[in-house]
Design brief:
Layout lengths: L1 H19 L5 E5 L6 E5 H9 L2 E5 L2 E2 L3 E3 L6 E2 L1 H14 L5 E5 L5 H6 L5 E2 L7 H4 L2 E3 L4 E10 L14 E5 L4 H12 L4 E5 L2 H10 L4 E5 H4 L7 E3 L4 E6 L2 E3 L3 H17 L1 H8 L4
Parallel strand pairs: 3-7, 3-8, 11-12, 11-13
Antiparallel strand pairs: 1-2, 4-5, 5-6, 9-16, 10-13, 10-14, 10-15
Pfam family, one: SBP_bac_3
Family: Belongs to the bacterial solute-binding protein 3 family.
InterPro entries: Bact_solute-bind_prot3 (IPR051455), Solute-binding_3/MltF_N (IPR001638)
Length: 275
């Protein structure tokens, strides 16, 4: 009987050890400051082991993510946010690798693991939440309308029967269609891969209006164009990650909360002249 009890106790201890090491999705890591072991999520450990954070960013949105054609450098508020997250994970904001994305490509690049995060004017919607983790919003905007000054277009209703240029896979088209239905007007849409293509189409007269979030439009405003006062459908930008990367999603959200509470996020918005 004594041998049986010893055997059962050994089994229980072994099972306990086995369970404690399974299903957590985390790996023990020793703290350099305290010498104590702490648990680190597997998705964050993978980034640490790689030594670089990979982020999908816009390169055609002035003030958010824009590649200077003269220097080749990509700068903007979202690039600074990516640096802050890289520093949080890796202790160095320069351990960051950015990749250009568009409204159409940012999702697939996240899906296939080419980027860890998308920080790319990615509007948070209930539909998108089914596919990705989204952080709390770091910027809120509204859909706006840019037209040529000499077009005679003064309001949304003046776009009845007109052609509107929008980005592929963006939320703009759906929002404008809903508003047009409310106001009893009809409009046609042409979809483009990039914002510069939409602006070129507006300048060439192929479309009557360039529509996207207001802060993005201001980056393309010039002497020949005007942005109408109308605003539709609040657009909240969030940092997106794969559904399975819950540890990374939590770290990102915690970082944004810290930046909001410290005023650092407001400083970034002011730095880049965003409203």
């Amino acid at each position: 009987m004594k041998k049986v009890w010893i055997f059962m106790a050994a089994c229980l201890i072994g099972a306990s050890l086995l369970l404690s090491g399974c299903g957590s999705g985390s790996t023990p890591e020793t703290s350099a400051s305290t010498g104590q072991k702490s648990s680190i999520p597997a998705d964050i450990k993978a980034i640490k082991d790689r030594g670089v954070l990979k982020v999908g960013v816009k390169v055609d949105v002035p003030k958010f993510g824009f590649k200077d054609p003269k220097t080749g450098k990509i700068e903007g508020m979202e690039i600074d946010l990516a640096k802050a997250i890289a520093k949080k994970i890796l202790g160095d904001e320069n351990k960051l690798e950015v990749q250009a994305v568009t409204a159409k490509t940012r999702g697939p690049l996240l899906d296939n693991g080419e980027v860890d995060l998308d920080i790319a004017t990615f509007t948070i919607t209930d539909e998108r939440k089914k596919s990705y983790n989204f952080s709390d919003p770091y910027f809120t905007d509204g859909i706006a309308l840019m037209v040529k000054k000499d077009s005679g277009i003064k309001s949304f209703k003046d776009l009845n029967g007109k052609k509107i240029g929008v980005a592929q896979s963006a939320t703009t088209k759906k929002a404008l269609q809903e508003e047009a239905k409310k106001q009893g007007i009809k409009m046609d849409f042409l979809e483009f891969a990039t914002y510069p293509e939409i602006k070129t189409a507006l300048d060439a007269g192929r479309i009557d209006c360039f529509s996207v979030d207001g802060a993005i439009l201001y980056g393309y405003l010039d002497d020949s164009t005007v942005i109408l006062p109308d605003r539709f459908s609040p657009q909240q930008y969030g940092v997106a990650s794969k559904k399975s990367n819950t540890g990374l999603a939590k770290l990102v959200n915690d970082t944004i909360h810290e930046m909001k509470n410290s005023g650092e996020l407001d400083k970034l918005i002011q730095k880049w002249g965003l409203k």
